[in-house]
Model the fold of this input.
Amino acid sequence: MTKITLPEFCADKILVLGSTGSIGKQTLEVCKDEEFIEIVGLSCSSNIELLVKQAIEFDVKFLAVCDANLKNHTSLAQLEDDVKVFFGQDAVLQLLQAVDFDVCVNALSGCAGLEPSYECLKLGKKLALANKESLVVAGDILIPLSQKMAGKNTDVFFPNISDFLGNIIPIDSEHSAIYQCLLGYDLDTLKNIWLTASGGPFRGDEYCAADFENITPQQALAHPTWNMGAKISVDSATMMNKGLEVIEACHLFHVSSDKIKVLIHPQSIVHSMVEFVDGAYLAQLGAPSMTTPIAFAIHLATTDYKNAPRFYDNSHALDFYEILQLNFGRPDLEKFECLKIALEVAKTGKCAPAIMNAANEIAVAKFLAGECKFSDIARIVEKSLSYLPIRDYASLEEILDIDKSTREYASKLEISS
Ligand code: NDP
Ligand code: MG
Done:
């Protein structure tokens, strides 16, 4: 690897939430060769063996394990006596409060990431955010909080993307792409966002809507271009993931959902595009690897480098002599009902995204456990949205209540498509 000369780091203590997952592991991979970066905290839900291995490799003194039943797990004996491990549902929040950190990488999966995002922003720390569900569920709270804690007046509109987002830096590849394209341009010159989507494993003609009855978890988990955790893989297969990303983009880039065009792009090379009012389009391209957006977010958060921080020496290269085609197309909303529902929900706003997200999490867990069909995921989300009241929310507590009651409702639903 070529050694790249780095600018001065102004922050270097990184906390990685969900370090045992797909994004978490890649974050540690990115940080491994970075002598200025210190990993100060790690967390997992139950994969304690990997967590302990990571803690030893990176000499980490603070850990969180959500599964309280693992308090006496044998692997803990490998840790030094000065390592503090928090256990239980509040373990991640305790970790955030106990550790002295500069940047939190939130790579938790699902709405479990919301409270940690909120806590991190409340502490006035940088949040490198992979956990899109945080923004989907409570973007109206998180963005103003981030601006306020970064010292911005929330009554003033900041057209510069880094000023607008305060302490939040997106990791999701499409949103990182859009962020990169927007650097140096005013948000109010943005006309449309072209949000690309691989289309998942069922995009082709070989699958029609009727086939969704019989899709197995194994088929849904086999994503053609990305290697990701189970929940997001199923979301990609239903295309709910793209729906969540439309809502995520509305919050991150201060646009209404009608300005976000979902664009099927099977090669996953163009990670998204922005269209400006003067007719110029900018795109960010790259191999389908999350290390580029992760490194970009971490370097943006840890340095006060003013330009786009491109100093991660990534081995994932594109050979344009070999890429014969880049294809684009419209999503099939009749086949991918979850995307259709999510686009409606993006327009509705209020607490509808929180209800949709909670119902979807329950439905995906049921599908993976063999308790419902792939086609039932859309049914469960739809029924939850029509049963539960759509109202405004003003606080984190309110939105967490809505999340909880939706989960209770969706868990009890008996669906037979
Ligand atoms: P994974 O399922 O691979 O990892 C999730 C991590 O969070 C694991 O460390 C897991 O611990 C932990 N975790 C899971 N549930 C809980 C919980 N209830 N409480 C506390 N910790 C929990 O997910 P991904 O890495 O794929 O995704 C993480 C986030 O990043 C998601 O929001 C996803 O949408 C987003 N994202 C992911 C991309 C990817 O390429 N993977 C791309 C873009 C965005 P354990 O290992 O013990 O289960
Ligand atoms: Mg994405």
